[in-house]
Amino acid sequence: MKKIPKSHPRYESLMTREKIVKGVELGITSQHGLIAQGRGEAFDYLIKERTTEKAKKKIKKAAKLLLKAKYPVISVNGNVAVLAPKEVIGLSKLIPAKLEVNIFHKSKEREERIKEWLIKYGAKEVLMPEKPLIKFIEHNRRFCNPEGIAKADVVFVPLEDGDRCKALIKMKKKVITVDLNPMSRTAKAATVTIVDNITRALPLLIEEIKKLK
Ligand code: ATP
Fold first, then answer.
1. How far is CA 84 from each of CA 27, 70, 88, 142, 155, rounded to the nearest angstrom?
2. Using a 6 Å CB cutoff, which residues line ligand 1?
3. What residue's CA is closest to ligand 1, atom 7?
4. What confidence tier does 62 reach under pLDDT thresholds 50, 70, 90?
């Protein structure tokens, strides 16, 4: 990755871009992930790249919901895998919750690379999308794992696509998301929406869960 001096006023933002670009080069993140990141950044700029008080409240709500869940599952896509690998793994061990790979632009190779990447970062078990068990959607995102999302009562799906979020809600699951765009279909449909950057929200969520535990 390119070296960016810590003194640079946009250090965090530039590092995040570097991670996403690296993710594409490694075949973990899709090229479309670059665009999604750009959309997120625009909204982050508007909230001054800080976690708002409202987001902090939602993080508390999400922490409670995840700890109360009978069968929580964390869904990981290519952007989340490169932006916060340690954090999603840490979160899964802490709750505890299963980790499942789930990407929008289906590719067996990319799914495998995400799994390997998470294992490299310390994940013990990573579930893969295997069967078309998500109802109400037609495209290839209906695939999920029978022991993962299919069975979950609470699904944590950061940076999610609106159709799938709505489908999970229709399947009577509680959905928690992190999405910088408060107007996205996901942000509007989820049970708990944390409008914040995943890179800031996840460490705060982990802290909150530790406090509650
Ligand atoms: P929807 O289908 O829910 O209306 P969309 O089509 O705009 O959403 P996708 O490309 O499916 O969005 O998902 C990306 C979402 O994640 C966008 O809403 C974007 O703002 C948000 N996002 C991108 N990067 C980040 C990030 N680093 N942290 C939090 N949210 C992000």
1. 16, 25, 6, 24, 17
2. 36-37, 39-40, 43, 83, 159, 161-162, 178-181, 184-186, 197-198
3. 184
4. very high
Question: Which residues, including other chains, have CB under 8 Å from residue 131's CB and lie 6 or more apart?
Answer: 143, 144, 145, 146, 150
Would you give the DSSP letter of residue 96?
T
What 3-state class would DSSP assign to 112?
helix
Q: Cα dihedral angle (28, 190, 58, 143), rounded to 10 degrees? A: -30
Q: What is the CATH number of domain 53-212?
A: 3.40.50.12640
pTM for the model: 0.96
Q: Which of 17, 47, 83, 161 to mutate to test the pocket of ligand 1 (most atoms within 8 A of CB)?
A: 161
Q: Are 180 and 51 in contact (CB under 8 A)?
A: no
How many Å apart are CA 2 and CA 128, to the nearest integer? Answer: 32
Is-contact 143 132, C-beta < 8 A?
yes
Q: Where are the domains of the chain?
A: 53-212
Tokens 């699951």, residue located: 173
Q: Rounded CA gap, 75 and 98, in Å?
A: 9
Judge whether residue 200 has pLDDT over 80. yes
